């Protein structure tokens, strides 16, 4: 019987959803939860400030390479079986990360963790679409989107609390109880899906892996080696372009490629990929900017930073709950436009940040942005798959996750580069006014105007703070412009009802 044709076709739908979401949140949390623990890991693992970042890079690259092959693996060994293996492998790898004794062992275990965790998010999206009838896809994607979007927000806070209260190793140990419960729930209730044998396109996979892996390495390592002044970045850029180009040609001309090119004929899905790329840029780029800003300019501790950013997650949760119901009654395209407008509004508010303000504007803009991104994410996840044949779902979900992650990496790299470069430019421009002939300087600090070293040091700290704040504001302006430019893309989406119903191809044994 087809899994999506009847509301009673799948028993224990609620328990299946809880088990799937536990695994999803566990995997998504690990993309950000370890970030705040890196300084503590450095000494324990015998690493330097430059090499400890491989703890993050190894995980990101491994997950990016394995994500596109999720569809083939699920067809080959079974979707249920792959999900269970992924949960077990991810949980065991997490425990191994917590027991790591040096940097080499940690990087090895993080690679393993990324390889096993890559399939969890796309498979969870596929399962939620399969076990729910089409009229409930909006609610299902609201539940899935809440885990995907709230996870990165609470990750740094939870990681900081665990590191300060217990030990950095608990950042990984915390996955054990979650993984066990998720595995037991999925083992007991997850339905079996009929396997679909297809050959493995090794050449296509190798070229896509080369392109994705080299791109992720370039984006993650660029800031450390000063981007294109380093030969390493040029090599990685060349490898990435080569891999993507050969893969695109192979996809168009080859036979039995591991991603069926017919998937790109669906306009909603292709437009959804563009949108989720933009959402990835905005979501994690802003999350990457705010914690260091609150720490460097406002002097907030890790815990307080988490508390200030928590309302953003609350806004996302509220939005997800509301939009799960609204998507059945309101044109999804209007919801996407409204969400992008709210997101742009929040970014506009963020351009008014000042080192002298309190936390109120940060909290309010965070809530508005959480509401906006929630309004975009759920309808987008629903409409992107609404006109797609069910047999393409797993491949489509893996591409959806891959593009979102690439967007996040590119967004973080762009705002980080701009922050550093603009900081230098702004500091130089502001410093030009620090001279003994400036009446404003003589009025504020006569000692600095007369050349007193202590007073000049204090003025330099003020200049640094202002230059850094202006740089953050420039980043927020850029993200606001990107968000506004994305709004017209909503016109390319089609109403799900306008497309013919696709034949159901996912069956339970």
Overall tally of structural domains: 2
What percentage of amino acids are in beta strands? under 5%
Which structural class do you get from the secondary structure elements? mainly alpha
Give the CATH level 1 class of the largest domain.
Answer: Mainly Alpha
Helix content: over 70%
CATH topology of the largest domain: Growth Hormone, Chain: A
Main location: membrane
Keywords: Cell membrane, Membrane, Transmembrane, Transmembrane helix, Transport
Family: Belongs to the major facilitator superfamily. EmrB family.
Protein name: EmrB/QacA family drug resistance transporter
Write up this protein.
- The structure is a single chain.
- By secondary structure, the chain is an all-alpha fold.
- The chain has 2 domains: 13-200 and 258-424 and 465-498, Growth Hormone, Chain: A (Up-down Bundle), CATH 1.20.1250; 202-257.
- The chain has helices spanning 13-29, 38-44, 54-66, 70-77, 79-98, 103-117, 120-131, 137-165, 170-173, 175-189, 202-221, 231-253, 267-296, 302-326, 332-350, 360-386, 393-431, 439-444, 446-449, 453-486.
- Helix 4 (70-77) crosses helix 5.
- The longest helix is centred in the C-terminal third of the chain and has 39 residues, at 393-431.
- The radius of gyration is 24 Å and the shape is globular.
- Keywords: Cell membrane, Membrane, Transmembrane, Transmembrane helix, Transport.
């Amino acid at each position: 019987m087809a899994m999506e044709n009847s509301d009673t076709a799948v028993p224990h739908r609620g328990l299946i959803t809880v088990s799937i979401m536990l695994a999803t949140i566990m995997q998504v949390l690990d993309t950000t939860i370890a970030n705040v623990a890196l300084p503590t890991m450095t000494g324990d693992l015998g690493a330097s400030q430059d090499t400890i970042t491989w703890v993050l890079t190894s995980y990101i690259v491994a997950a990016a390479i394995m994500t596109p092959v999720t569809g083939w693996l699920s067809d080959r060994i079974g979707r249920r079986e792959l999900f269970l293996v992924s949960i077990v492998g991810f949980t065991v790898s997490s425990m191994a990360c917590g027991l790591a004794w040096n940097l080499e062992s940690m990087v090895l275990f993080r690679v393993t963790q990324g390889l096993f965790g890559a399939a969890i998010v796309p498979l969870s999206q596929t399962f939620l679409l399969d076990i729910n009838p089409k009229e409930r896809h909006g609610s299902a994607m609201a539940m899935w989107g809440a885990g995907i979007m709230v996870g990165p927000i609470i990750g740094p806070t939870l990681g900081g609390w665990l590191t300060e209260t217990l030990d950095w190793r608990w950042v990984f140990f915390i996955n054990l109880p979650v993984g066990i419960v998720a595995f037991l729930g999925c083992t007991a209730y997850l339905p079996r899906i009929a396997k679909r044998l297809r050959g493995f396109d090794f050449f296509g996979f190798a070229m896509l892996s080369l392109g994705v892996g080299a791109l992720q390495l370039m984006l993650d390592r660029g800031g450390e080696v000063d981007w294109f002044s380093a030969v390493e970045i040029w090599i990685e850029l060349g490898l990435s372009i080569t891999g993507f180009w050969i893969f695109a040609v192979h996809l168009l001309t080859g036979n039995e490629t591991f991603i069926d090119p017919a998937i790109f004929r669906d306009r909603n899905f292709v437009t959804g990929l563009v949108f989720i790329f933009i959402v990835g840029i905005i979501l994690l780029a802003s999350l990457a900017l705010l914690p260091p800003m609150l720490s460097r300019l406002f002097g907030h501790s890790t815990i307080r930073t988490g508390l200030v950013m928590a309302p953003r997650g609350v806004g996302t949760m509220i939005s997800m709950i509301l939009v799960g119901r609204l998507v059945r009654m309101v044109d999804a395209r209007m919801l996407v436009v409204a969400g992008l407008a709210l997101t742009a509004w929040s970014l506009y508010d963020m351009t008014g940040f000042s080192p002298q303000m309190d936390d109120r504007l940060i909290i309010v803009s965070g809530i508005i942005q959480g509401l906006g991104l929630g309004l975009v994410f759920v309808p987008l996840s629903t409409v992107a798959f609404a006109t797609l044949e069910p047999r393409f779902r797993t491949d489509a979900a893996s591409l959806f996750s891959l593009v979102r992650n690439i967007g996040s990496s590119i967004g973080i790299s762009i705002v980080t580069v701009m922050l550093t470069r603009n900081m230098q430019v702004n500091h130089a421009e502001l410093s030009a006014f620090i001279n003994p002939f400036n009446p404003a300087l003589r009025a504020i600090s006569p000692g600095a105007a007369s050349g007193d070293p202590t007073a000049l040091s204090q003025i330099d700290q003020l200049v640094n703070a202002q230059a850094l704040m202006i740089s953050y504001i420039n980043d927020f302006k850029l993200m606001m412009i990107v968000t506004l430019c994305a709004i017209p893309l909503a016109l390319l989406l089609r109403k799900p009802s306008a497309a013919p119903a696709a034949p159901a191809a996912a069956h339970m044994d």
